[in-house]
Amino acid sequence: MTTLSDADVRAAHLTASVLLGYPDERLEEARPLLAEAVAGLPAGAVREHLAAFLDHLDATPLAEVAAHYVATFDLRRRCCLYLTYYAYGDTRKRGMALLRFKHALREAGFEPAEGELPDHLAVVCELSGRGAVRQAGRLLREHRAGLEVLRAALEAERSPYAHVAAAVLATLPPPGAREREAALRLAAEGPPAEQVGLEPYGMGGPR
Predict the structure, then answer these.
(1) pLDDT digits (tens, 9 = 90+) for 62-95
(2) Domains recognised in the chain with CATH numbers
(3) C-beta of residue 85 within 8 angstroms of C-beta of residue 206
(4) Is the pTM of this model over 0.85?
(5) Is 82 helix (H, G, I), strand (E, B) or coil?
(6) d(CA 152, CA 78)
(7) Residue 186 class from Cβ within 10 Å (0-12 exposed, 13-18 middle, 19+ buried)?
(8) Taking the CA of residue 65 as centre, how many other CA atoms within 13 Å lie in the half-sphere pointing to its CB?
(9) Helix, strand or coil for residue 190?
(10) Contact at 8 Å (CB) between 123 and 20?
């Protein structure tokens, strides 16, 4: 297994953060910098997965990438980029979990873009890319089961975004037995389905 330095993790997470945002002209403008960042990573799964997705971008018109993004992340609940959704669904407990993400971001002096939830995978990756590697890593590890389900769902959909999810997972330590069991259980049962409790936070579930 390739050992990543904090600088490597920051570069990988910042790249993933950009790739997990809505693909518009800014992504095209950032493409050379992203390629440079990925090329600077040590050989291994993280670099291979990110490079594979960049190759997909090179070979695919931006409009097609954007249409796939919407069809995948906005229209399929099983491909949700909001980490707390997997563990808590649309329940009261999710509101408390979101506050934990908010506090972690504020402690690091980082505020997500207006209207974006703090548990969006791109936001957490950006937190790490801005230097809060420890705080972001803790949040990612706590929600690793959801990340594993997301990766599996993207692979089942044959989505190139599975490479980005796999790259983020590859920056984390190998899962233990409890984490593997949690991922399997979540994949089999899905998130809780209670449809209340988020209104006070202004946090609706994914479409």
Answers:
(1) 999 999 999 999 888 889 999 999 988 877 888 8
(2) 6-199 (1.10.3480)
(3) yes
(4) yes
(5) strand
(6) 9
(7) middle
(8) 21
(9) coil
(10) no
